[in-house]
Task: structure prediction
Amino acid sequence: MSSMASEKVGVIGGGLGGLAAACTLAARGRRVCLFEKNPWLGGKAAVHADGGFRFDMGPTILLMPSVLRRIFAEAGKDLAQALDLVPLDPQWRSFFNDGAVLDLHAERAKMAATIESFANARDRAGFERFMDLAQRLEAISNRYFFWRPVGGLEDMFDPKATFNLATLGDVLAMRPWSTVAATIRASIRDPRVTQMLDHFTQYVGSCPERSPAVLCGIANMQTSEGVWYPRGGTRAVAVALANLATELGVEFYTGVDITSIALDDSGRVRGAVTAKGETIAVSAIVSNCDAVRTHRELLAGQDAASRFEKRRRYEPACSGVVLYLGLNRRYDHLLHHNFVFSQDPHEEFDWIYHRGEPAPDPTCYVCAPAVSDPSVAPEGGEALYVLVHTPYLRPHHNWDALFPRYRETILQKLERTAGCGDIRSRIKVEHRLTPQDIHDRYRVLNGAIYGLASHGRLHGAFKPSNRSSDVPGLYLAGGAAHPGPGMPMVMMSGWIAADALDRDLRSGRLHSAANPRESSAVLAAPGH
Result:
């Protein structure tokens, strides 16, 4: 233990991915120092309080609590002792332009029966087929994709070691020729049901018409493990991880801005450089900063940065506008999670992902947490969170000018489609977050909430690997690294980065190899 602890490792960024990495490394006996430029830990999982209202500022939907359990288990801890998780069922409510309302139920059989009464028996059967496929796609993800550093197909499949008929069947089941939207519509015809199912890909901030079909597996991930509300809000997840890291001896440096990563003459990580010019020596670094900005800014001028940029052009995922509305009366017809859908999803996605402009008729995600946690607002009130996806920042976007008009668009949508006709009179507290705010506050690429887009039928599911192939000693975590965005995936990315770093130090590979990359044959995590 003492020889392991003698080597200090650094984590840059105290978001959920960075905290997960710090906890995992510290639980394995590593000396860990974490640097965060903001005064708080948790990144986007921040909180804003005003006038008796408490708003989760970033993520609000918690899936796959098994990821958190695994991180806590690294330290021999029980997640149930740190977080009170409340199951939500129905998981969300959908509002459509024609006035129809459709609830998404946790139990598959109940959801199938609901679709039959909402649409028809044919679409019920189509939903069952779709969910069968989603279940298989999740199983494929668990076998080849999750809990290991993956940057492309070559990391998932080793043709010499694993190529056989079963593997070929898995590859074909991934439908590399298709997209999420096309796969859904091959089974289901009712446009409202397909629009609801399209929005599983909104967890990764990407267009279902351009995202690979394998992402349909998200539907089964949500069904199999459920949707949960952490008592105290999603901020409670960050607090629980920070508390665990503190127990494990992680050294926190908040308000410390890391401006570059120092490399030695051989190109290996040797330290983190602060804004004051101080170099803090570490043997390896997990960067929880955006993967592209890590290379462009923290490795600026290094050969590794240019190699990363030349290897593949990564597109930012979408951004968003968030309204935080403190209401003096809550709406009884809203569930904890709600989607208020656009009239034409194809047109909406065209505006956001092709034209690069805010959609005139957007889909609104509405979180109304008082039904689960009355403490978020004064008695009888609501801390409403309204998110509308927008394009990532373009040079001509001026959100100070755009916001007043788009606020009006959003409020009109809630009045017209979500049954919130008197919402303006109920607003007592109001705050906002725009793409420019997100870009500046969180240092993500072009204000992208979800890191990098999952576009492209072959490569869309792949983000930069958690183990850098350019810089020995550099590991990547967060929504812009494998396996991608969303609370569970971001925390899984931190575990993967930490696991890869720990393995490399234990094996001596980090110090002996110019390119410390494991072969596909040894990438499987323990227990997989």
